[in-house]
User: Fold these one by one.
Assistant:
Number 1:
Amino acid sequence: MRLSRPARGVLSIVTGLILLVIYLPLMVVLVNSFSTSTSLVWPPPGLTLEWWGRAFQSEGALDAVLTSVQIALIATLVSLVLGTLISLALQRFAFFGREAVSLLVILPIALPGIITGIALNNAFRTILGVQLSIATVIVAHATFCIVTVFNNVIARLRRLGTSYEEASADLGAGLWTTFRLVTFPQLRSALLAGGLLAFALSFDEIIVTTFTAGAGVKTLPIWILDNLFRPSQAPIVNVIAVVLVLVSIIPIYIAQRIAGAEKVSR
């Protein structure tokens, strides 16, 4: 379907306005990270690299980054294992309640984060009697990171079909050998894309983390929230926010390129 010239013009203007609303605040944060003003007045009276130096010397910020990376890595590994196993079970086997299980797997990412956070907080503290810690945050993050891996892997399995696996079985290969030599090589790019998205999702998550983190656990988003309204820390917060945006964009960009490469190759 081809649009008329006026329709294309209107669509371009609307698209440009939407992108401006989304990305202009991010550009303001980027510029403020170089501002010489601690009160972040606009426009900035001058530019400096002082805050970037202080940010990379801030023990609180660096500890928060390490904590976020640790949580994101473990949650991603858990999600890769469980998401792949669930995808194989739902796509390769027929059993009673399969559609219900599929819905329950996807549901956590569709629910509001505050609902998920409250539910997990009650489950850990009231039902299980578990003290909130970094382990509870990892479990909480894995509940919704599984969805990104699951969606990528099950989509790939649907496109692949079962002919290669059936041929492997006919040639005498066992279940594990077939998975290792046939199925897994065809899933690697889907697993990489799903893992990158899961890492980005976990790294900058704050709502569920707030409800499931113990007193001594401080991830980078929580550190930013705690220091956002402190005048002496505001410029450093902007620097950390820029770093957080970059860390979030890079895995998403790589995952998108992988998906694009897969479409081209097919």
Note: The chain is about 75% helix and 0% strand.
Number 2:
Amino acid sequence: MKQLMPLALGFLILFCLPMSAQDLSVYQKKHFVKNGDSLPYRLLLPKDYNPKEKYPLILFLHGSGERGNNNESQLVHGSGLFLQDEVREQQKAIVVFPQCAANSSWAKIDVKGDFGNREFIFYENAEPTKDMLLLEGLIKYLKKNYKLDKNRLYVGGLSMGGMGTFELVRRNPKMFAAAFPICGGANPNISKKLGKPHWWVFHGAADEVVPEKCSGDMVKAMGQSGINVKYTVYPGVGHNSWDNTFEEPELLTWLFSKSK
């Protein structure tokens, strides 16, 4: 029994260290309320935050699996990237993770077929969802209540949030300096409205949930429109291509280098 104690203690330390290193409580719990509707969101302020100093804004939109109203699930993917000491010290920004309601989405989308043979129907000019309107209201609120560098507003998202990234830029074509949708997609006909930001699009080649074609068609149309777009496809990677994206060593350097 005594021989097992050091081993058990070792495992305890091993599993506790990552948990302490990723203290998600640093993301403040907030709610944006408009006309009786509420949008939960988590807010990460820079280290040594100075309310008189201007900061870039990074808005990250989660996927369908993180919808709800617990104001926690939206941090499952991506939040740890912005908690790294090196990032918080060298690339200071205000980071916001809003949470879409369980019965809503960031953009109007329809789906036909089963996994492995899915077809997404993306609309060219659909009415905004309730959560898209709340999201746009939240952005206005953040602009009013925090000193944001309006030339350095960034948006990204994964899956449903990648689709929401395209939709948010379509609806606000002059707002963002850069955008990075992951395993998302949109109607290629909206490309003419996406020309202001710099784009870096990501997708897994083996994605059976959102086929790579959804991003590939967008990138092709954007390129034909003369838009500044990079495209990274991960061979053999399925829907969780966000894991690869968050490990891209140049992602944040690229993002923070962009300005309107």
Note: The CA atoms of residues 106 and 164 lie 5 Å apart.
